[in-house]
Amino acid sequence: MVQRVPNYCPQCGTAVEPRTFEGRERRYCPSCERFVFRNAAPCGGVAVVDGDAEALLLVERAVPPGDGEWAFPGGHLEADEPPSVGAARELEEETGVTVDPDDLLLADVRQLDPFDGKYVVSIRYAVARSTTSGVPEVGSDAETAEFVPVEEIRRGSRPLRPHVRPQLDAILDALRDS
Ligand SMILES: [Zn+2]
Hints:
Largest sheet: 7 strands, mixed
Strand content: 25-35%
Helix content: 10-25%
Order of helices and strands: EEEEEEEHEEEHH
CATH class of the largest domain: Alpha Beta
Bound molecules: zinc ion
CATH superfamily of the largest domain: Nucleoside Triphosphate Pyrophosphohydrolase
Mean pLDDT: 94
CATH architecture of the largest domain: Alpha-Beta Complex
């Protein structure tokens, strides 16, 4: 299973060949006699909301995609990691803020714009800052981590990843309904 169209089998290294299966052109390894399926990558992340929907914890990304843009903390789930556990881990890695995965509210699931042929499914959780511990400090994959006023996010007065504003209302709704 891969995320970009492969040229070689990830198991044995044999050149794969196009073959149609279930109505899609896929890649097939003649040596393993198996398809090499291409799938989206699930990513988990947390939007920490401060006050009465006043500000959200964002990070300024230091790595592509979106180097220099602001986004919610998040990243790829490990293979054996439940989404909420991975989301909490990414939050801590990128901002130092900790949260019990059981306290996370599922706010939004969506496909993000593909980057370099790779598709990501974003699993976004929301939590009130009062439910978390720690003060934001910058960690891996980020330049800066800070609470950004919701008004500033809506105005787009700093460069944002494209999914931040579309996810904003779902995040605030999840907290309001909790
Ligand atoms: Zn193979």
